[in-house]
Amino acid sequence: MAAPQTQRVAAGGEQGRDGSHSGVGDVGFEDSKDYILEPLSLPESPGGITTLERSPTVPCIFCEEHFPVAEQDKLLKHMIIEHKIVIADVKLVADFQRYVLYWKKRFTEQPITDFCSVIRINSTAPPEEQDNYFLLCDVLPEDRLLREELQKQRLKEILEQQQQERNDTNFYGICMFCSVECFGNRSVLLNHMAREHAFNIGLPDNIVNCDEFLYTLQKKLDNLQCLYCEKTFRDKNTLKDHMRKKQHRKINPKNREYDRFYVINYLELGKSWEQVQLEDDRDLLDHQEDDWSDWEEIPASAVCLFCEKQAETVEKLYVHMEDAHEFDLLKIKSDLGLNFYQQVKLVNFIRREVHQCRCYGCHVKFKSKADLRTHMEETKHISLLPERQTWDQLQYYFPTYENDTLLCTLSDSESDLTAQEQNENIPIISEDTSKLQALKQSSILNQLLLQECLKN
């Protein structure tokens, strides 16, 4: 921080080239180089509590009793029993130690009734049996402001710690599953365990205090405890088999012990990652209708196979190609009995030939697409498709143009038949199968088979 550096410069003075220190009043050539190129700020913490001083214990607000930081519940119990003071929503206090030190100082300056609500119990009992308890909560503006400042300070410290770990290149760790040594950055070890052992505790950039996190997990494994179901086993091999077979190579998301190792749990006061994620999902659902209510779909234009004409719908494009180029794609599909994939091949074949300025009817190349189009219209080669084996090839599965909208509209359904075929009402009369032998002799299939044989 800036303040300690400033103090050292003021106390130590300027060190010259010969190793001697010049006084504060000596302004020489070297002093002229000591410019301050960034704004400085003093450390900020509620109640004048410096962020550098940390004690392993927390004092009672009213007496000299001290309790370890990890035994916060014992301190709260002591204050309720001995001093009749209750702190509301303790879990929402980001830094309990600084919180207690702040109010310990304030209670020496003003009476407790100036800050706390008085709760009288046994109010209907005789006066000697009545008792008063004091409630300290964030209804008091000063308390609410203190909690917010502690939360900001804690978040700032966490982000600084996270950035330091992200930039650290001197990390050393051993894999918990195969004893592989990892050097450099913490991400090397985390990525190794995720990739090689399917053990993923999250993205490295979302984790803070990684060394302590890994130590906590290793300690559980050393105690033969499963990280997910948290059951204890008799030996290491049994534990490994259990975690592998049950797919328990992951941590228990309901164990709040791990919350302090994820940055997301420090973003909002008193909210865990589950609550933050749930609120995000609710906001998405609440605004989903608003976000899409003004959506206007822009129609994707389909481009003609032979010219630059674009149409908003494929129906209009079919009409254009039939009127302008005498090319009826629906009729060709019906006559040749093309399925979807064969239509794709045919369209891609025509696209490629036109792109290369080559007539697929006579295989003559031209200098421009305009010359090709004029030739094909004059010679009626547009409707003169080559043999099926020419275009029905695997290479034409791949589109000539990646954004060819026409390919997305092709279909092999019966709804794409020509209008004339759609209007034809052909009655279907079932055949009498009681005289099957006579039916076989008089069947039209015999005539079709004879005609096909004569053609061949």
Comma- or semicolon-separated keywords:
18 helices, 11 strands, three-stranded mixed beta sheet, mainly alpha, 456 residues, elongated, single chain
What is the number of helical segments per DSSP (H or I, 4+ residues)?
18
Query: Which structural class fits the helix and strand makeup?
Result: mainly alpha
Instruction: Provide the low-confidence segments as ranges.
Output: 1-52, 415-424
Distance between the termini: 96 Å
Number of strands: 11
Average pLDDT, rounded to a whole number, is: 78
Topology as a string of helices (H) and strands (E): HEEEEHEHEEHEEHHHHHEEHHHHHHHHH
Global shape? elongated
Question: In this structure, how is the largest beta sheet organized?
Answer: 3 strands, mixed
Cα-based radius of gyration, to the nearest Å: 41 Å
What level of helicity do the residues show?
40-55%
Q: Give the percentage of residues in beta strands.
A: 5-15%
Q: Tell me the strand order in the biggest sheet.
A: 5-7-6
